[in-house]
Automatic annotation (TrEMBL), chain A:
<dbReference type="InterPro" id="IPR001247">
    <property type="entry name" value="ExoRNase_PH_dom1"/>
</dbReference>
<dbReference type="InterPro" id="IPR050080">
    <property type="entry name" value="RNase_PH"/>
</dbReference>
<keyword id="KW-0271">Exosome</keyword>
<dbReference type="GO" id="GO:0034475">
    <property type="term" value="P:U4 snRNA 3'-end processing"/>
</dbReference>
<dbReference type="Pfam" id="PF03725">
    <property type="entry name" value="RNase_PH_C"/>
</dbReference>
<dbReference type="GO" id="GO:0071051">
    <property type="term" value="P:poly(A)-dependent snoRNA 3'-end processing"/>
</dbReference>
<dbReference type="GO" id="GO:0071028">
    <property type="term" value="P:nuclear mRNA surveillance"/>
</dbReference>
<dbReference type="GO" id="GO:0003723">
    <property type="term" value="F:RNA binding"/>
</dbReference>
<dbReference type="InterPro" id="IPR015847">
    <property type="entry name" value="ExoRNase_PH_dom2"/>
</dbReference>
From TrEMBL, chain B:
<dbReference type="GO" id="GO:0005730">
    <property type="term" value="C:nucleolus"/>
</dbReference>
<dbReference type="GO" id="GO:0071038">
    <property type="term" value="P:TRAMP-dependent tRNA surveillance pathway"/>
</dbReference>
<dbReference type="GO" id="GO:0034473">
    <property type="term" value="P:U1 snRNA 3'-end processing"/>
</dbReference>
<dbReference type="GO" id="GO:0034476">
    <property type="term" value="P:U5 snRNA 3'-end processing"/>
</dbReference>
<comment type="similarity">
    <text>Belongs to the RNase PH family.</text>
</comment>
<feature type="domain" description="Exoribonuclease phosphorolytic">
    <location>
        <begin position="196"/>
        <end position="259"/>
    </location>
</feature>
<dbReference type="InterPro" id="IPR015847">
    <property type="entry name" value="ExoRNase_PH_dom2"/>
</dbReference>
<keyword id="KW-0963">Cytoplasm</keyword>
<dbReference type="GO" id="GO:0071035">
    <property type="term" value="P:nuclear polyadenylation-dependent rRNA catabolic process"/>
</dbReference>
Length: 241, 282
């Protein structure tokens, strides 16, 4: 299948090194302590953060830092065909775990001993890159909840199809059989906290694809920073400062 | 959804309902504003999102080709399923939300499908062989009480938003052959939702009953009756929840109140749906 045509245009009309349209909104779930919606093209996720609060299950209590929990679930209508999997299947468990570990790396858990933070992620539309979109949404929701973080974590994926490195794969490209590299970085410290790849790739190409994904992360972090700044300005304005 | 209220707060809610002035300024039989968005899920046949205060639900309709049940060869199938997202609260993580999900799914099936709200025979393509299956999936994103009414309204909005593609059925079909179909692009039929009932839940707090209760008000209820009524004022389904018993005469009184409220409620819902349709079309 031809994923990039001769003019260098992808199936959805993007250039190889182009991100999809980003859209973020803070405060979408009013009952949560912090929440955000994040869209990357047709992928749309909602994140809600509850906490820090007392640990519900005492046996899970950690004396010197906060317990971070994460749940990822897909809506029945999120994919083209209706999802028939029950809640909490293997794939969601794996993604929950990955997101939990990534977010734990940036939350300053040592400041909140004996407490618990819950991150709930709901996929409304899945069109590739739900993992990345969830991490970006979770970062915004954590910031909205006022949870101390050492940096902003952002994530983006990149792939390699038709001998071209492609940024931010959509569902068709993701299922095209090529490798899919998902990278999560701490934006300011410039450190990689998440790296996953699911196919074989020569070393020098891998370097190129990973660099492309990191560049994508940087663009997203710039956007997230703008959204957070705008949100803070709004809050300031409402408080009359 | 555990609500922790102090003695004073409980008194305030109960006293307010007694005096026909609730905590958010509404009267006993007033609904909260109900903004509707339709077409929120592009890959679905139809979808709608409704917010009632902080209650936030999305309903999507997906039409798939299926085989009619052998007991009802002339009828299509409609399945309603409600899911409770973990974004409602950490107490709904994992399988903990399933109790609420299945309670709401059954209630919706009883209230909406019971009284021939959807004309199932209109979903049939080849009798006994091919029909449309409508999968109606609800998702609760945030809960501030009155979930059933919100879901009922969202189902109605999502069904009015649904466009079912027209199909060409190839003729000359032998009796035991599978029918072959062609889906025609860009030509659709709409589902008739005019006879679909609405659900009105009356929550009894003290001696009075209120509509559209918030989470705090629901925590003070003695019992609640959900009544589904259609445009002609006929009762299409009824569910009583909550522990306390009710005098039969009180139930009859509640039904007449619900009937009275439903006239205004259906009118509001219709105008909200048409506004949403107009704005999503443009």
């Amino acid at each position: 299948m031809e994923f990039v045509n001769l003019q260098g245009i992808r199936l959805d009309g993007r250039r190889p090194k182009e991100l999809r349209q980003l859209c973020a909104e803070i405060g979408v779930v009013s009952k949560a302590d912090g929440s955000a919606a994040f869209e990357m093209g047709n992928t749309r996720v909602i994140a809600a953060v509850f906490g820090p609060r007392a640990v519900q299950n005492r046996s899970q209590k950690i004396a010197n830092r906060a317990l971070v929990r994460c749940e990822y679930s897909m809506a029945k209508f999120s994919t083209g065909d209706r999802v028939r999997r029950p809640k909490g299947d293997r794939r969601s468990m794996e993604i929950s775990l990955v997101i939990r570990q990534t977010m734990e790396a940036c939350i300053m858990t040592q400041l909140m001993p004996n407490s618990q933070i819950d991150i709930c992620l709901q996929v409304l539309q899945a069109d590739g890159g739900t993992r990345s979109a969830c991490i970006n949404a979770a970062t915004l929701a954590l910031a909205d909840a006022g949870i101390p973080m050492c940096d902003i974590v952002v994530s983006c994926s990149a792939g390699y199809l038709n001998t071209t490195p492609l940024l931010d794969l959509n569902y068709i490209e993701d299922s095209g059989g090529g490798p899919d590299v998902t990278v999560g970085i701490l934006a300011k410290m410039n450190k990689v906290t998440l790296l996953q790849m699911d196919n074989k790739l020569p070393f020098d190409t891998f370097e190129k694809v990973m660099q492309l994904a990191i560049d994508g992360c940087e663009a997203i972090s710039k956007y997230i920073r703008e959204v957070l700044l705008e949100n803070t300005k709004q809050l300031e304005y409402r408080r009359g400062l | 959804m555990s609500v922790e209220l102090s003695f004073g707060e409980k008194n305030f809610i109960q006293g307010g309902i007694e005096q026909n002035l609730r905590a958010d300024g509404r009267q006993r039989l007033d609904f909260r504003p109900m903004p509707i968005e339709t077409g929120v899920i592009p890959q679905a046949t139809g979808s709608a999102r409704i917010r009632l205060g902080s209650t936030d639900v999305i309903v999507s309709v997906k039409a798939e080709l299926g085989r009619p049940n052998s007991h009802h060869p002339g009828k299509g199938k409609v399945v309603i399923y409600v899911d409770c997202s973990s974004t409602v609260g950490p107490s709904f993580q994992g399988k903990k939300g399933e109790e609420l999900s299945s309670e709401l799914s059954t209630a919706l099936q009883k209230c909406l499908l019971g009284g021939s709200g959807i004309d199932l025979s209109s979903l049939i393509l080849v009798e006994g062989k091919l029909c449309w299956d409508l999968y109606i999936d609800g998702l609760i994103l945030s809960s501030d009480g009155n979930l059933l009414d919100a879901l009922g309204a969202a189902v109605k909005a999502a069904l009015s938003n649904s466009l079912i593609p027209k199909v060409n059925i190839l003729p000359d079909l032998a009796a035991d052959e599978e029918p072959e179909v062609d889906i025609i692009d860009e030509e659709y039929t709409q589902i008739d939702t005019s006879s679909l009932p609405v659900i009105i839940t009356l929550t009894k707090v003290g001696k009075q009953y209120i509509v559209d209760a918030t989470l705090e008000e629901e925590s003070q209820m003695s019992s609640a009756v959900s009544i589904s009524l259609n445009r002609n004022g006929q009762i299409c389904g009824l569910i009583k929840r909550g522990g306390a018993g009710l005098n039969p005469s009180v139930i009859l009184d509640m039904i007449s109140v619900a009937k009275h409220v439903s006239i205004r409620y259906i009118a509001t819902l219709d105008s909200e749906i048409s506004t949403a349709e107009a704005s999503s079309a443009s």
